[in-house]
Amino acid sequence: MTDLLNTQQEEGEVTKKLEAHTAKLPSALFLTASIAAMGVSLTLKCLGRKHLSLFVGQWAAPFLLFGIYNKIVKTEGHD
């Protein structure tokens, strides 16, 4: 069971730089972006823009996933 962690692989330089920059962003930013996407989607739906509303509404989940990734990078760090 100790072989589950892959300690031989390292992240690439691009990933390290990206994680260093994203770790500086507050986690609340992603939650706010997700809630804003839902609000804009609701507004568009009320205005009768059904397809655009669905498109914008689908942004909420990726924003939340970015927030989870951001939190993991902040707490666990990178290589």
Can you walk through the features of this model?
The chain is mostly helical and 79 residues long. It has a domain at 26-79. It is 70% helix and 0% strand. α2 (27-46) packs antiparallel against α3 and α2 packs antiparallel against α4. The chain is elongated, with a radius of gyration of 17 Å.
So what's the overall shape?
elongated
For the terminal residues, how far apart are their CA atoms?
22 Å
| SSE ordering | HHHH
Oligomer: single chain
Structural class: mainly alpha
Give the total of beta strands: 0
SSE arrangement:
Elements: H1 13-22, H2 27-46, H3 50-57, H4 60-76
Descriptive keywords:
79 residues; elongated; mainly alpha
What is this structure, in a nutshell?
Keywords: Membrane, Transmembrane, Transmembrane helix. The chain crosses the membrane at residues 25-44, 51-69. The protein has helices at 13-22, 27-46, 50-57, 60-76.
